[in-house]
Structure formats: C-alpha cells, structure tokens
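Quick one:
INPUT:
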C-alpha cells in the first residue's frame, strides 16, 4: 500500500493524549493517529450519506410535520406518550 506523510500542528495536550494512548496500547504514535483519522473519516462519510438521504426525502416530500413532532416530544413525559410520528 502506498502511503503519504501528512503533518499537522496540534495542541500539546492533544499530542500528550496520543502519546499516552500509544504507550498504553504499546503502539506507535503514527498507528494511533492513523486509527483515529480512519474512524473520524468513516463517521464523516456516514454523516454525509445520512444528510444526502435526508435531503432526498425532503425533495420527494417525505417529511414529518413539525407540530406532529412537537406533540410527540411533549407527550414523552406523560403517562401515555404518543407513537413516533412517521
């Protein structure tokens, strides 16, 4: 696998935490950063996918009325909460 060096300035406290985790896991600083970056990128890709999916729902008119959501939310702390609006 080809690799590329990426450098970034981070606050000392963040770098210290990376070093602590690396020591605890008996891994290199680079390994910890690579794992953290891969996880974060995965989360961002999922967030984008969900956002695009939601926007497609809006474009097709598949939305839930605000008053229905508000009524449902208000009912949650009652003895008989409303079903989730769909």
């Amino acid at each position: 696998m080809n690799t590329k060096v990426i450098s970034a300035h981070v606050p000392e406290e963040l770098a210290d935490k990376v070093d602590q985790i690396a020591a605890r896991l008996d891994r290199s600083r680079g390994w910890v950063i690579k794992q953290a970056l891969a996880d974060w990128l995965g989360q961002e890709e999922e967030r984008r996918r969900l956002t695009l999916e939601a926007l497609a729902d809006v474009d097709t008119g598949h939305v839930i009325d605000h008053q229905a959501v508000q009524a449902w939310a208000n009912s949650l702390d009652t003895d008989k909460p409303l079903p989730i609006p769909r």
